[in-house]
Amino acid sequence: MATAPLFTQAAAQWNLDPLYGDLAKAKAELMPHKRYGLTDLEQTRLRGLLLRYSPAEISDQEGIEARTVEVALSQGLYRYVEQVTERDRNALDSWRDVADWLETAGYRSTQVAINWDQMPDVPVLYGRQVELDQLKQWMLGTSACRFVSIIGPVGMGKTSLAITLAQAVQTQFDGVIWQSLRHRPTLDNVLGQWLNELPDDVIPHSDEWYDQLSALMAYLQTHRCLLVLDNLESILSSGSLVSEYEPAYSNYRELLKRLGEQPHQSCIVVTSRERNRELAGSRAANSPVRYLELGGLRYDDAAQLLAAERLPASGKPHWKSLVAQYRGNPLMLRIVAMTIQELFDGDVDRFRRHGRTMFGDIKYLIDQQYDRLSAAEQDILGQLAERAEPLSIEDIQHPDCLAAISALLSKSLIEKSPAGFTLIPVVMEYVREQLP
């Protein structure tokens, strides 16, 4: 049974035929004893490099040792690329040079239409390399996803991650559009704007949103575009166990449903604090719809953030407990670092001895999540706060217990251990203040 060719997405962005031809000439000059032309394997690896796959990632796709690919590239393709781009022999010392040099030489075919107008100005992203690599693999791999959602609580850095991701992969798409939902635009306005901004003219049958959506889907089937929808929770109703769209925005369900279910060449990335039916996704390796639950920063990355916020290094022995207390939430750590600087002269130990984890802007962040919870979720948080010890499913008394606990786990408001379910420290303090 024939194996499907790898990295075929490169054809949408690169003039492959003339590139294959020029590299074949370079190969003939450098290695006249070899058969003329690039082999299928050389063409495959070239496409992988053009899509910014590392040799290790290419070897994973081929199912062979990374060292085998690295040696073959250094003895072959790297030398051909040097010849074609008129570089000195052995000047290419990084696989990243291949796409950069060939783009400079004019082999890229597509001018990418990019609209960053609604992209917010966000803080520097610390860490997240594992998450970035995973998202890039989903979006650019051989079984490329058409729908990816990034789910996580307020302050966790979903938007920052999505921005970094979009900027890293933008050259792999014909067009990139960033759409913020923070100010709750109607779908009619969003679709009309998108159709105007995409590289080629797209003319719907009418100005009705469903005709605009059909025109968009037809376009996405023949062009490879990246669409980012930021802050989906802004158009979801609050107070319900199942996140539903507010009535004025119910047609967004059809947009996301079609983008997830209907085959197309493009990719949509959605960020949200809550996961509804359209964002459910799958963990199956080849699923076209995936989701990433964004957790807290690893300690080393959080320590970089605290250092950048100018917390004195003398307090480093206490940084680990500080990061653990706020579960690596980047925005909360920034707020806490600023508070420690202003009120405790940078002394982390003094702040810890003060005993308060929830205050000011930290309280405001938790308010945003708590106010959106259903009565069942709030009731269960209250039970966990009253007992102040891990509770099992059997200990928690509520008819909607299973659905509510699942929702609270997905929102990172509670944690599960072998002993049972508990609140994270800052949420524990917050909920206790809500109790009568």
From TrEMBL:
InterPro entries: AAA+_ATPase (IPR003593), NACHT_NTPase (IPR007111), P-loop_NTPase (IPR027417). Gene3D superfamilies: P-loop containing nucleotide triphosphate hydrolases. Residues 144-296 form the AAA+ ATPase domain. Pfam families: NACHT. Signal peptide: none annotated. It comes from the Bacteria. GO terms for molecular function: ADP binding. This is NACHT domain-containing protein.
